[in-house]
Design goal:
This protein has 263 residues and is an alpha/beta fold. Helices cover 42% and strands 10% of the residues.
């Protein structure tokens, strides 16, 4: 097969952007009103029992029918497996990327590659303050002195504000991530954010994620092959030695193992 010319690649990209714009325009015309918190809570509790045993495709088919475009996917851009799986059921699904200002260049590059090639809509979730503004108020390198506050300002609060426009959010949390996540359900009520939380990959292993990516030619962050099985902000993430817990490189040396998004 011949390599596409620059003009062909450019036209393909323009067509991709036109398709995304057309979907967004159509969605705006048929926008739905978000249901009340009590209504969503009932749906979540019923679904938690219904999908207790879990089947990713069956679960996501239900999500597409129940919530449609009022669904958001949270993606750290360690890989694009989760949004790829979801987009098969909800094309052009909103995919939330927490733009903390501290990402590895590889993570930003993965985000850009995903946006330009996959049938989804990237929503950059921005903190209220730039890094410079945060430094001016709290001092430089807050992530070293108070990582919990840094995550709260740059991840938790911006995500909470953004999720207010949705009925359900889909995460890539897996039970094999860490002992704290070993009992992750497929569906649960997110009391903190006031919406339904879906974990369709809860029973997947890291190897299954990689196998899916290989089978479907899904974009992976190159850091995954460079000793980073769990990727967060650059200042707070280190390489993991063979045999270490996959999340051992997150906030290494600190009494912290979660950013607060899922706790």
């Amino acid at each position: 097969m011949s390599t596409p010319s620059l003009a062909e690649r450019r036209e393909r990209q323009l067509a991709h952007e036109r398709d995304r714009a057309a979907h967004l325009a159509q969605r705006a015309e048929i926008s739905r009103t978000r249901r009340t918190t009590p209504e969503l809570r009932v749906i979540a509790l019923e679904a938690e029992d219904r999908f207790a045993d879990g089947d990713t495709d069956t679960l996501l088919s239900w999500v597409a029918e129940e919530f449609g475009d009022l669904t958001a996917v949270a993606c750290s851009m360690a890989d694009a497996v989760l949004p790829h799986v979801v987009a098969r059921h909800i094309p052009w699904v909103d995919t939330l990327f927490l733009e903390t200002g501290y990402h590895f260049a590889e993570t930003v590059g993965t985000r850009d590659a995903v946006e330009s090639s996959m049938q989804l809509t990237i929503v950059d979730v921005q903190p209220r303050q730039s890094v410079a503004e945060q430094d001016a108020q709290y001092g430089e390198r807050l992530f070293e002195r108070d990582p919990a506050l840094c995550c709260q300002l740059r991840k938790v609060e911006p995500l909470t504000e953004t999720l207010g426009g949705y009925e359900a959010w889909i995460t890539g949390v897996r039970r094999d991530d860490s002992p704290l996540r070993a009992d992750t359900p497929f569906v649960t009520w997110d009391e903190k954010n006031g919406l339904v939380k879906i974990n369709p990959l809860a029973d997947w292993t890291f190897d299954r994620v990689l196998d899916y990516a290989a089978e479907h030619d899904v974009i992976l962050n190159p850091l995954l092959n460079d000793g980073y099985p769990s990727i967060g902000c650059a200042p707070c993430t280190r390489r993991v030695a063979p045999g270490e817990d996959p999340r051992a490189g997150r906030w290494a040396g600190l009494d912290k193992s979660e950013c607060g998004l899922h706790t």
